[in-house]
Amino acid sequence: MADLNFQNRTLYHGDNLDFLRGMNSETVHLIATDPPFNKNRDFHATPNSLASGARFQDRWSWERDVHEEWMDSIKDDWPGVWEVIDAANMSYGRDMGAFLCWLGVRIIEMRRVLRQDGSLYLHIDHTAHAYVKALMDGVFGHRNFRNEIIWFYKTGGVSKRWFGRKHDTILFYSKSNEYKFTLQKEKSYLSHRYGFSNVDIQEDEQGIFNMVTMRDVWDIPALRGNQPEATGYPTQKPLALYERMIRASSGPGDIVLDPFCGCATTPIAAERLDRQWVGIDIWEDAYQTVLDRLEQEQLAILNEDEDGEQASRRLLTFGDVTYSKGPPERTDDNEVAAPSFRLKMRRPIEPWQKITHRQMVNILVKAQGSADGVICAGCGRVLEKEFMEIDHILPKSDRGENHIMNRILLCRPCNGRKRDNFTLRGLVRENKKKNVAWMRDEARAQIAQSKATEFAEWVRDNFQSSECQELIRQD
Ligand SMILES: C[S@@+](CC[C@H](N)C(=O)[O-])C[C@H]1O[C@@H](n2cnc3c(N)ncnc32)[C@H](O)[C@@H]1O
Fold first, then answer.
1. How far is CA 258 from the centre of its chain?
2. pLDDT tens, 186-221?
3. In this predicted model, what pLDDT tens digit does every residue of 156-193 receive, in sequence order?
4. pLDDT class for 46, splitting at 50, 70, 90?
5. HEC string for 237-273
6. For ligand 1, is residue 236 a contact (CB within 6 Å)?
7. Cα separation of 327 and 17, whole Å?
8. Is 34 in the pocket of ligand 1 (CB under 6 A)?
9. 383-394 tens-digit pLDDT
10. Residues spanned by CATH 3.40.50.150 within the chain?
11. Is 70 exceeded by the pLDDT of residue 415?
12. Among 39, 83, 212, 472, fewest CB within 10 Å belongs to which?
């Protein structure tokens, strides 16, 4: 296991991507988190509550919320995930695609920081659930999917136009097949005492019950504003919900992380169960709310004497929680300790195969360039580089790889026509057959193709040379 480069009881303030990227690989036992769901609205806290003034945005656009670098890295390293994003773009709408891209880069990092025996619980509602499930299958692998937990509650209104929407979904994935899990039991209330002579039945204020193995439908009341644990934070979840996940998938002393911790339900639940925790949120008052909640909960910590023996318990105080706006610095040489399941592969990856999307574009612009612009390898048109798109020579659907040896620049119409339907040759043939208006010069298109291949071979064979490194760096 890698060294920890963060402390127990730390609250980070800022965009969680920076903080996740700063954490060493394979350090966290459990992530239990509740990101925004793409509900296309803004959330505001109850006035005069602990969380008063808090608000966050839950609406997404490619232009405002997604960085090109995230798109490039997903396209290059997680093509299956990109397909899911693309599908959401087309079948739901561009806001869902943008949301998935934004969430996808973060989930990839979450998986990296999880230990091999770690798990992730991701809370989502009906708006995005199907798309996020596909995204998570892409990142974790469908074999590591463990449960779709239905959190069922009764609060809130119902519509006259459809069945009352009274559940959220929690997707539970493990990082590998060797994951921590302790089966939980819960009370099952019986309508009468008779006929259960061979089960151990008990009684409490709600009636007669016996203990049964926990299933994947969890009946836990949603928070009401007058409950002691309610802070007024707009999307606060019940502690009982997060305590179940923490009990099932971690042990005392384990590290629990919530990168979207809001008013710190996961950290407080972790503290109550003697786990270590780290929370991240972009909301600036999260720190004060955590302190207020810790005080309200009267949580105590165990002091140890110099020999490490238990000495006494004292209440948590101000100084016990670390607050930071700066991400931790990696001390593990940027090891991706656990290669992605997809890359547990047949053969090692060569350095030249790791060239980024942007770098590949730079190389191909040079290869397919002419005095007047860049030549499209599909139709032979010469255009400015801004009108060119990078594509696969052999389509990904035919196991075409992502590296430079299988890449080519096409103009937008050619790329749209080619997609996964044609090989490059097939595209040129199709362009001619259909006599498309933009088809200019087949011979010139073929020259562009062979130049791109020649150049890619040169990059592969001379990757370490200063000339090649210089070329890659050029914008
Ligand atoms: C659904 S709420 C989480 C509520 C939490 N489970 C609770 O019980 O309070 C989502 C949270 O994600 C936070 N958030 C949104 N974008 C973020 C980002 N890029 N980095 C960190 N936090 C973010 C919001 O401020 C909000 O608190």
1. 12
2. 998 887 776 666 678 888 988 888 899 999 999 999
3. 888 999 999 999 999 999 999 999 999 999 998 887 77
4. low
5. CCHHHHHHHHHHHCCCCCEEEECCCCCCHHHHHHHHC
6. yes
7. 9
8. yes
9. 999 999 999 888
10. 10-179+219-324
11. yes
12. 212
Helix (H, G, I), strand (E, B) or coil at 92: coil
Query: What is the pLDDT confidence band of residue 342, given thresholds at 50, 70 and 90?
Result: very low
CB-based contacts of 330, cutoff 8 Å, min separation 6: 5, 22, 23, 24
Q: Is 352 in the pocket of ligand 1 (CB under 6 A)?
A: no
Output the DSSP codes for 344-390: S-SSPPPGGGG--HHHHHHHHHHHTEETTEEE-TTT--EE-GGGEEE
CA of 240 to the centre of ligand 1 (A): 19
Q: Which CATH number applies to 10-179+219-324: 3.40.50.150, 3.40.1390.20, 3.30.360.10, 3.20.20.150?
A: 3.40.50.150
Is residue 38 lining ligand 1, measured as CB closer than 6 Å? no
Q: What is the mean pLDDT of residues 356-373?
A: 90
Burial class (CB in 10 A: 0-12, 13-18, 19+), 116: middle
Region of 311 (left: φ > 0; alpha: ψ -120 to 50; beta: rest) is alpha
Cβ-based neighbours of 425, under 8 Å, separated by 6 or more: none
Q: Is the CB of 27 under 6 A from ligand 1?
A: no
